[in-house]
Amino acid sequence: MGTFPKFLLEPLGDQALLVRFGESFSEELSQQVLAAEAVLVRNPFPGLVETVPTYHTLTIWYSVPDVLAAQSAERARNAGNDLFHTEMPVFDWVSRQVEKLLTPAPLERNYPDASAGPAGGRVKIIPVCYGGEYGPDLEEVAQIHGLTAEEVIRLHSGACYRVYMIGFIPGFPYMGGLPSALATPRRSNPRVQIPAGSVGIGGTQTGVYPLASPGGWHLIGRTPYELFTPDHDTPTLLQAGDRVRFEPVTAADYERIRRIL
């Protein structure tokens, strides 16, 4: 059973706290972030509003009035203890709650494999029509790397990706695991409008644009799946920690799936 790694607590405005586990992004750091989030979700402190995982940090949003009320109740319960006579700054009080939850013993008790994080997350298979009007940059990406379009498709669809975070626009998954042979800098001239469902490559990552939006990633395909449905209880198809595989489909299959959805 592992112990939890060292972390830093930093203020983020007056209603949030940042738990920092490192400065880069990797699967190991992602696992640590998600393990910490799982503990906080299972054992929320008074005033916890929301947790937001990223590459190597976990943002914790809290309600100041609820925290002040919790402090007041705490002082009332410990009226005879001098340690509770003075009101603690909100950030300090929240930091104390987080530190208590994220120390090794509570973590191991509440999340037995805390050092490893969730066991790989869910696995999602996403159909993609590569090239043509669906992936206008496929040929360019192939030329950059001295590959054929078919080889790019084979490499991209043959990998298993990890969702590190959701950001940029609602539902956009930043995914690691892109084969190094496909790592491609962003376009020098970003597009003003990218169709929803477009699958792109940006640096060492791949992602899917859930909404029509501007963007600078190289577009190699498009999925008929909707990645953001705000009227659903869970509005995003993907979540941090999920595993993703892309399944090549024909244009006819793409249109058939789109009509069904």
UniProtKB/TrEMBL annotation:
Top enzyme category: hydrolase
GO MF assignments: 5-oxoprolinase (ATP-hydrolyzing) activity; ATP binding
Segments forming a coiled coil: none
Protein name: 5-oxoprolinase subunit PxpB
Domain Carboxyltransferase intervals: 7-238
InterPro entries: CT_C_D, Cyclophilin-like_dom_sf, PxpB
Enzyme Commission number: 3.5.2.9
Organism per entry: Paenibacillus lutrae
PANTHER family (UniProt xref): 5-OXOPROLINASE SUBUNIT B (PTHR34698)
Pfam family, one: CT_C_D
Keyword ATP-binding: yes
NCBIfam families: 5-oxoprolinase subunit PxpB
Keywords: ATP-binding, Hydrolase, Nucleotide-binding
